[in-house]
Design a protein that fits this description.
The chain is mainly α. It has 12 helices and no strands. The relative contact order is 0.21.
Length: about 240
């Protein structure tokens, strides 16, 4: 495992804290924030370490609002996430690191586009299943699997949206890590890299209580998160092309 400088570690810690705060408070956002920023710090963070870190924020948020979880939609989402994760793990092991970085950045921009252009769809089982397949591919390759679910569940009540999203993302990330491990793309190094940053994910969760209670939080946070994602993704694309 590559040692990080203090400056790089501080940037990674800040990114994880902010990502966990937004994820816990809004139901999604961990991968959108953490993935492009941590990829700039060290490409080895993606996708395994970020998936590992994302489970912390999602698990804590799910426990906090467990009574609002919709079991039917959670099961539908996970049913789709499994085949998507298998496809993505196979792709990841077949491409070069440079090509993967380029693919990663393009998929992050696609996630931003999905977040901006959200078609109105009802949160039915089949719709959430399809979202699960797309999320499985995107989430396993980039650790950003929330936007498809965000679209599918956008008309659910706020508490149900947050709780169900976090439940699906937690269990879905576990599935993605299992598939990556099966293909030799996730291991002890990813866990150790993530373990050093877990306290900052917990800190972000602890700070999210006020965000959950703020009715204007989604409108305040969303533009800043998306702008941050676009900027980081453009830098990643430039770095991949120059490499």
């Amino acid at each position: 495992m590559v040692e990080l400088s203090w400056a790089a570690f501080a940037l990674a810690a800040a990114a994880v804290t902010l990502a966990a705060l937004v994820q816990s408070g809004a139901g999604l956002g961990f991968g959108l924030i953490a993935a492009p920023l941590l990829a700039l710090v060290d490409p080895a963070f993606i996708p395994g370490t970020i998936l590992f870190l994302g489970t912390t924020a999602s698990a804590l948020a799910t426990l906090r609002e467990r009574r609002a979880v919709n079991p039917r939609l959670t099961l539908a989402g996970l049913s789709g996430r499994l085949p998507g994760a298998i496809i993505a793990a196979a792709v990841l092991t077949a491409v070069s690191p440079a090509l993967f970085q380029l693919l990663f950045a393009v998929l992050i921009l696609a996630a931003v586009a999905l977040s901006l252009k959200s078609p109105k769809v009802p949160p039915t089982g089949p719709i959430v299943f399809v979202a699960g397949v797309v999320s499985g591919v995107m989430g396993t390759l980039t650790a950003v699997g929330a936007p498809p679910f965000g679209i599918a569940l956008q008309h659910a009540a706020a508490a149900e949206l947050r709780a169900t999203l976090n439940a699906v993302l937690f269990l879905g990330a576990c599935l993605s890590m299992a598939m990556l491990a099966l293909f030799g793309a996730f291991g002890v190094a990813d866990i150790l890299r993530g373990a050093a940053l877990v306290p900052f994910a917990v800190l972000g969760f602890a700070l999210s209580g006020r965000l959950v209670r703020h009715p204007e939080a989604p409108k305040l946070v969303r533009p800043a998160v998306l702008a941050l994602c676009v900027g980081a993704s453009v830098l990643l694309i430039a770095r991949a092309l120059l490499a």
